Amino acid sequence: MSECRRDHVSRDVETRRRAVAGFFDFSEEVMKVATSLQAALVDRDDEIRIKAAQALARIGPTARPAANTLADMLRQDTNPEARMAAAGALTSIFAGGSFADYEKKAFENSSMPCDRTPTGACVWLCVTCLA
Question: pTM, whole model, 2 decimals?
Answer without folding.
Answer: 0.69
